[in-house]
Known about the structure:
mainly beta; Lipocalin; five-stranded antiparallel beta sheet; 1 helix; 21 strands; globular
Amino acid sequence: MTKIYVDKCRKIKKVGEPIVHHHSGSTQGTWMRDPLGLLGPEKIWYMNSYKGDKVLEFKDMDHFKGGEVAKTYTLPYKFDGTGSVVYGRYLYFNRANTTYIVKYDLVTEKIAKEHKLSSSIKPRRYSYQWGGYNTMDLSVDESGLWVLYSYAGYNGRLCAILLDPLTLGFLDQYCGISSEPRNSMGNAFVACGVVYSIDSYNSATTTINYAYDIAKKSGTNPKIKFINNFAYNSMVTYNPREKVLYAWNNKRQITYPLEFEDETQD
Length: 266
């Protein structure tokens, strides 16, 4: 699969005010665009709740706001969590109550690949603060496809695996890369090779309180302000093509604009 390449990729220095695009569905859920745009750069995919087997596809933002569904997919397995991603022609998701990552072809509507993570990882354990079966949180950045998870071996602190999107095999793995256990953090995402941890999912104003730079193998507290103005942010993920965060906050489908450090900053 084609990766996303950029000439300059810097750390986030500011998360802007959230922009509400639509108010729909359950308290928790997932919505996204494909950062590669292979099936259409404007298409939106929508998974209501943190468990189920339905994926809705919308032609563009206007059709999404109008509730005009272009297509409904029924997955062969139920999904867990709000960490699914569309990457190219595939939906990647965590098969319910397992540690399998499933690669589902949105064109053929069949499973293309499945891969089980380590037996050390237990399903429906070490989710974020709000719970919701987020055993595995998939994320895409400029480097490719990541999965964020935790297990007892690192006292529940965050781990990140860079996956081969073709085979779902491991390309790189990093563990113990958060300042607190995963069930104490609001959410996490990967952007420009940095794993960011958000302190709270329900505080009206919280912070990104840890940023682990994978290349430097070191972490700091950037103290970046992060607004949860609807008090239940169950999904946060980065889109490297649009350079924004997608989020689902208490039935609202939201994006956050981002500002990145200047090229001269380290």
